[in-house]
From TrEMBL:
One of its GO terms (molecular function) is polygalacturonase activity. This is Uncharacterized protein. Belongs to the glycosyl hydrolase 28 family. Residues 1-34 form the signal peptide.
Length: 1426
């Protein structure tokens, strides 16, 4: 492994010497920990997303997999870098995360020694060199001083030194105080001080300009005073970050949120459906083209202050300290936040007290920015909006949407007007060492993850006004997630200290539609002093929200309560959650019930439990949805160290498959209500319990006639009843038919009515009831009833009053209906069938089956409707034998036209054409093809907005354009002239184009028939205040990367005046020279070099071995972006004295050297016209492949291993000039394309060298399915193998249907080859013409210009349109295109069949691989080129 090369080698030497003399500790020899059959090593050593910079790398790991099985516990971890011990995790944590560490020390120093003491699972390696690789390993240290095995090693590199932009250089300013003359910065609306309002707006623009100026990999910095107790305040409104950048706030700097609501753009929709308009935050990075924003770091030792609420009037606006809080005297270190170990206490307002419904500030007004937002939203009066919607207009601290790669580190986050750190539809997010001080700001969630995955939260301090760490997964049908994939979660939460927060360290819900899960919370400490606090786990949702929460692990945490009037429970599970400020009208996720499942809570210690340990209320049924399910929960190794009053108990209701194990210190016995399969083991005060044994053997026998079935089964265990379940195989699963009481120990039986001529699955589930209610495995069978004619329906004909839930409530894709239960005294009602028939035939009819599983059901939510469509809805009841009742309705509904979901899409391969822009002073013209864009807008709810131009991901009009629909180029235009003035010369810039849609309407507030509101939708006719147009832009548009010169480019001038003579048979090497800007491309304009020599276009080097004597005259040309120059030169090749080109004697030339085969070739052989030859004489090689193989490559090397130039002859042989010392020949043979007519596989997945995420996968799949190409073997396709001329002609021949033709006449195409018929057909139809010497070269690799020419000829044969062209001179090497290929190449480029490579290179002579060919032919066929 090569690491820290060059200068770092010196460091390695010094380090080695230091180790010898004992300057650094080496890996100590210590006893190994007995790990039994486990690995015993820390697992998954890694670096969280973006947790590194030019001098630092943050490491994390997971515990050894024998952690819970080892009697000896881990006390710490040792970390090694490049084989040298660099420290213990605990000491590193103390040094780098001193604020969190001080709180943990105070916790353990003042509370019970029995508390679980957390292990630190991270290490921050500092003082590293930029752009350097390091190797890390970790091992555990046990309390008996033994060591575990080492983890797997991790090699990771620091970042290069970034370009740094000081915001002050762009005009950003700061204030040093927010009192006195600057007091208005902390008053709602800036106290209407016009001067300060303008200063904030100007400062926002200056900081934004600094952000926009940051190049890829760079960072913008807010400089600080160095003292967080006396900081510089940078007032600002909304700022917008871009990809591949760092935003740093130094120690002693505060980004202070403007108190003016108008400084925050208002066009944010939390979900892409039915939602009030919300407002962007202080820091933002937003896109609706998810993943197109990436790699954003928000770091520093300063702070972000949202300026949301006033401080409380008691305690100087500070919280009362608890006995377990650090103090200036006890912490041992100074408070790095500058607060003297005191925590701020903000006003806990609501949607009335926030502004007191007044425009005037007073003591009764509790908000600052929150008040200004609320009051101005009240004045706007958005339709369908009330206090709840107005209240949700408050800005968050941050809003990130659609970002891949986010990193937050080191900052202190204060006082949000709404929520704190908010992340939507983003992935790969790490939060490390932040301090959230938001208590008791109303709704002040610490951090939120909406539909976000790949999350790490570590080493941070949380003191919040609402949920600490919240996960949400949306609501309604539109958020249904992928199978076995959660919409939000997939992460770890560890080594955090939580001070206050309603929701605890994991608060999940209430939006659960797309599922939340796959989360681990471990090694955290929670010391709550909040009235209303819960604890480590809060799961909340409602029956109609759908989805659920699954796969949650909460382990190894310590909890203490310091307030006697705290909230619900340490662990809260709530299926009846209601949010008083909810503003989203939504429908059910699907017909599946809300489900919480697969939860493990392990090794938790709790002291001063004023509240229940676990509280689970009965699942709350809904009129319109199935009853929620709570299943598969395990609680074990939990210690209640002390409780107060009625705290410290466990009470659950309505759960199944629950285990309580080793829970000590409870106030009383565990109570379980309406719960099944409960296991209780070793919980003092509660009798052990195991589920009844109900899994006996035996088969279910079903005997059916026309519409009746008899079921028989053996008695199972001590079952007291059996549930009979029926599945119609209609996708809805089992439905309960009846409950049958046990008949004792003998055979059990019952009869059920079923519809005739129908197949079913039938099951019986054994159950017991009472305090130890249990259920066993299903006994299952299948049955098909016989045919019969049904009599008169027994379904009641009484009107059920079928109607909508409320006449004015309709969503974009749902509608609630209600009705009275229909009866059938004979057979019973099986289900209700609802049909939604659209009045517009362009939309599909929807059918639903409503199965009622609880007594509360009295309706159904239609879901998956199309938005903006009128439907006639009918309902009828169906009994168990299939008889139908009367059809009720129709009831006519109209869904709300929804917000446009899609962003415009660019076609694959879309590209920009660039002219000019070679230097900072020269404008660049970029052009794109509008036909490459697919627009999904309908002109009603959205319209096409046009295009915007971005430089390094920043709109040319400024970063704030992220938030609106402002285009750079209007629809119908496709050219933009860009000035590089102001850019940094000699730095690469990426110029890209995005297409966008402007949202005209959105489904506001609570929905309703009038709920689709114009986006300007207030009582004003113009855009109100800060509400901007709303655009959805593609983030994946075409782009080019350019480096601009500082001055006008200088054309080359060739300075080489003459060239040295060459010597026959002796290697020649001479570089041409020229002045002018680089890069320079060299070429031979006329004449030719001596035989055996060639010119390297990029270096200007003439090299090779002359094979003939005499004078060769030629004109050499040097070209760059600014122009070209030419010069006439010549090389005279001489023969050394005594040597002869015919092999005469004299000097070394008289010696004969051997030619031999290097590595023995497989699947073929080679022969030579002579086995010995003198240096400088010609040797000819003949390659003979085995049957079914072809020559893929031929190389010759001299005695020193240097490759010798070879020439491919027209007859298929190869020749070279014998070098001094002899030559070795190395051929390579590969399996050739299958014979004509051989069918290709229809599934590219069978090729082990083709993966679904390869760029060429679709092309290969397409060609295989069409039978146009086949694999190189049964399991391989060889995508990177070059394509021969015969292969292409064979593909076109197959595409044409393999017509017959007379022989081609080419002397090198034998009649019995696999390609002979194809070549004959192509030749007779002028698709090919060969080399002009009677040769076709079937086994020659095909070049890009040959490929285009053959396709062009075929297009002409077929009569396709060949008028769409693009000049090859737009490419830097366009003059390298052969004259005969110029017209075909221009057609292929204009038709989108091929494009240039990076740096605008066309490379006409490059060979085409099988992967490239498959993609080009697919485009040729699919684009129609007709």
């Amino acid at each position: 492994m090569k690491m820290k090369m060059k200068a770092n080698m010196i460091c390695s030497l010094v380090l080695s010497l230091a180790l010898l003399v004992g300057l650094f500790p080496v890996m100590p020899t210590t006893p190994a920990h007995a790990a039994a059959s486990y690995s015993g090593a820390p697992q998954k050593l890694s670096v969280p997303p973006l947790a590194f910079d030019e001098s630092k790398i943050v490491l994390t790991w997971e515990k050894p997999d024998d952690y819970y099985n080892s009697a000896v516990k881990i006390r710490d971890y040792e970390v090694f870098r490049d084989g040298v011990l660099i420290g213990l995790a605990s000491e590193n944590f103390r040094d780098n995360y001193s604020y969190v560490n001080a709180y943990m020390d105070a916790f353990y120093g003042n509370l019970s020694a029995q508390h679980h003491r957390v292990n630190i699972l991270s290490f921050t390696a500092t003082e590293l060199a930029p752009n350097t690789s390091y190797e890390f390993k970790v091992r555990a240290v046990y309390t008996d001083e033994t060591r575990s095995d080492f983890s797997a090693s991790l090699v990771f590199s620091t970042a290069p030194t970034p370009t740094v932009i000081d915001a002050a250089a762009q005009g950003a300013t700061y204030i040093t105080s927010t009192s006195g003359a600057n007091a208005d910065y902390k008053i709602r609306g800036a106290n209407n001080n016009a001067t300060i309002i303008k200063k904030i707006a100007d400062n926002t623009a200056a900081i934004q300009a600094a952000i926009d100026a940051v190049p890829t990999g760079g960072k913008v910095v807010l400089k600080g005073s160095g003292d967080n107790a006396n900081p510089y305040y940078y007032p600002s409104g909304s700022l917008f970050l871009h990809s591949n950048m760092t935003f740093e706030i130094e120690k002693g700097a505060v980004l202070l949120g403007s108190p003016v609501f108008d400084h925050y753009p208002r066009s944010l929709l939390v979900y892409p459906y039915s939602q009030d308009i919300r407002t962007y935050g202080l820091l933002n990075a937003v896109t609706w083209d998810y993943g197109s924003l990436k790699n954003i770091r928000i770091v520093g030792k300063g702070a972000i202050d949202g300026n949301g609420w006033k401080n409380t009037t008691t305690g100087n606006g500070l919280q009362t300290q608890t006995a377990a809080d650090p103090t200036p005297g006890s912490a041992g270190v100074s408070d790095p936040t500058g607060n003297g170990w005191r925590l701020p206490n903000y006003q806990s307002g609501g949607n009335i007290t926030v502004d007191n419904k007044s425009a005037i500030d007073s003591d009764s007004v509790l908000g600052i920015l929150a008040a200004d937002a609320m009051w101005k939203s009240r004045q706007d009066k958005t339709p369908n909006a009330l206090d709840a919607q107005f209240y949700n207009s408050r800005p968050n601290l941050t809003v990130m949407r659609g970002v891949h790669g986010l990193y937050y580190e080191g900052l202190t986050f204060y006082n949000p007007a709404f929520h704190g750190i908010v992340n939507y539809q983003s992935e790969q997010i790490a939060v490390n060492g932040v301090n959230a001080m938001m208590f008791d700001a109303n709704n002040g969630d610490g951090i939120e993850f909406g539909d976000s995955t790949g999350i790490t939260i570590m080493n941070s301090f949380w003191d919040t006004g609402d949920d600490v760490i919240n996960f949400a997964a949306g609501q309604g049908t539109v958020v249904r997630n992928l199978t076995n994939k959660v919409a939000s979660g997939e992460g770890r939460v560890f080594n955090n200290f939580l001070r206050n927060g309603h929701g605890g360290m994991l608060a999940m819900g209430s939006h659960t539609g797309g599922w939340i899960g796959d989360l681990i919370a471990e090694e955290n400490v929670y010391n709550s002093n909040e009235k209303g606090s819960n604890g480590v786990l809060r799961m909340k949702s409602g029956a109609t929200t759908g989805g659920g929460i699954r796969n949650i692990v909460v382990r190894d945490n310590a909890v203490n309560y310091s307030n006697s009037t705290v909230g619900n429970s340490t662990i809260v599970i709530d299926t009846d959650y209601k949010d008083g400020n909810a503003s989203t009208a939504f429908g059910p996720e699907s017909e599946q019930p809300l489900t919480f499942e697969n939860v493990l809570v392990r090794n938790i210690t709790v002291s001063n439990a004023y509240i229940p340990l676990i509280s689970v209320a009965a699942p709350v049924s809904s009129v319109y949805a199935l009853s929620p399910i709570l299943r598969n929960f395990t609680f074990e190794d939990i210690k209640v160290l002390s409780y107060v009053g009625s705290g410290g108990n466990i009470a659950i209701n309505g759960m199944s498959d629950v285990t309580f194990r080793n829970i000590t210190g409870l106030r009383g016995a565990i109570t379980t209500t309406n719960s099944k399969n409960v296991t209780i083991e070793n919980c003092p005060g509660t009798t052990n319990r195991t589920p009844d044994v109900l899994n006996g053997s035996g088969a279910l026998t079903v005997t059916a006639n026309t519409y009746y079935a008899t079921l028989e089964w053996p008695a199972i265990g001590n079952a007291t009843q059996y549930a009979v379940l029926v599945d119609m195989l209609d996708g809805y699963g089992y439905q309960q038919n009846k409950i049958v009481a046990s008949a004792g120990a003998g055979t059990q039986s019952t009869g059920i009515a079923l519809r005739p001529n129908t197949s079913y699955k039938v099951a019986v589930r054994p159950e017991t009831t009472g305090a130890n209610a249990s259920y066993g495995n299903l006994l299952e069978s299948t049955v098909t009833t016989g045919a019969a004619t049904l009599g008169v329906s027994t379904v009641s004909t009484s009107s059920p009053s079928f109607n909508v839930k409320a006449a004015d409530i309709t969503g974009i894709s749902w509608q609630d209906f209600k009705w009275n239960a229909v009866t059938d005294a004979v057979y019973g009602i099986h289900y209700y069938e609802l049909t939604a028939t659209p009045t517009n035939s362009n939309h599909a009819t929807k059918k639903y089956k409503a199965y009622f599983n609880n007594a509360s059901r009295a309706g159904y939510s239609l879901w998956g409707l199309d938005d903006g469509v009128t439907y006639d809805v009918t309902m009828k009841a169906v009994n168990w034998i299939g008889q139908e009742g009367p059809q009720w309705g129709p009831v006519t509904i109209t869904t709300v036209p929804g917000t446009l979901m899609q962003t415009p899409a660019w076609a694959p391969g879309s590209q920009l054409t660039v002219a000019g822009g070679r230097w900072i002073g020269e404008d660049m013209t970029i052009t794109w093809d509008e036909r490459d864009v697919t627009d999904y807008s309908n002109g009603d709810t959205a319209r096409f907005a046009g295009y915007r131009i971005l430089i390094n991901g920043v709109p040319v009009d400024g970063g704030a354009v992220q938030a609106n629909a402002k285009p750079t180029v209007q629809p119908g235009q496709h050219t933009y002239v860009f000035s590089p003035a102001g850019l940094i010369p000699n730095v690469p810039y990426t110029i890209s184009v995005e297409a966008g849609s402007e949202i005209l309407k959105y489904a506001s507030g609570a929905g309703g028939l009038s709920g689709s509101t114009g986006f300007t939708g207030t009582e004003n006719t113009e855009l109100p205040r800060n509400q901007v147009t709303f655009g959805k832009w593609t983030g994946h548009g075409p782009s080019v990367t350019r480096t601009f010169l500082a001055t006008a480019p200088v054309a080359p001038t060739i300075t080489t005046s003459s060239l040295p003579n060459g010597i026959f048979g002796i290697a020649y090497n001479q570089a041409l020279a020229a002045t002018g800007d680089t890069p320079i491309t060299w070429s031979i304009e006329s004449g030719s070099l001596p035989a055996g020599l060639s010119l390297e276009p990029t270096t200007g080097k003439i090299s090779g071995t002359p094979t003939a004597t005499g004078t060769a005259s030629f004109t050499v040309k040097a070209t760059n972006d600014a122009g070209s120059s030419s010069k006439d030169l010549s090389i005279f090749t001489i023969m050394l004295s005594g040597s002869s080109s015919s092999g005469g004697s004299g000097g070394n030339a008289s010696l004969s050297y051997s030619v031999s085969e290097g590595t023995k070739a497989e699947n073929g052989s080679v022969s030579y016209d002579t086995n010995k030859a003198t240096a400088g004489s010609k040797v000819t090689i003949t390659a003979t492949p085995k049957e079914g193989y072809t020559l893929n490559d031929m190389k010759v090397f001299d005695q020193n291993g240097k490759e010798v130039q070879i020439t491919k002859n027209a007859d298929g042989t190869y020749s070279f000039i014998m070098p001094e010392g002899g030559a070795k020949v190395e051929p390579a043979f590969t399996k050739k394309e299958a014979a004509k007519g051989t069918p290709g596989t229809s599934d590219a997945k069978k090729f082990n060298d083709v993966k679904e995420d390869d760029w060429f996968y679709k092309g290969i799949q397409f060609m295989s399915e069409k039978g146009l190409m086949v694999g190189s073997s049964d399991s391989s396709f060889s995508p990177n193998q070059n394509t021969t001329r015969a292969m292409l002609v064979t593909i076109l021949h197959r595409l044409e249907g393999t017509p017959s033709a007379s022989e081609s006449g080419f002397t090198d195409v034998k009649a019995d080859t696999w390609y002979s018929d194809a070549v004959a057909w192509a030749s007779s139809n002028n698709v090919i013409s060969g080399y002009g010497n009677g040769l076709f070269g079937p086994n020659n690799d095909i070049s890009r210009e040959q490929l285009c020419t053959i396709l062009y000829n075929y297009a002409k044969l077929k009569g396709y349109d060949i008028s769409n062209t693009k000049n090859v001179n737009a490419f830097t090497d366009g003059n390298n295109v052969s004259s005969w290929a110029k017209e075909p190449m221009e057609w292929a480029i204009g038709s989108g069949l091929i494009s240039g490579y990076e740096n605008n290179v066309l490379a006409p002579g490059d060979t085409a691989t099988r992967a490239q060919l498959s993609t080009i032919i697919q485009r040729f066929i699919e684009k129609g080129v007709k």
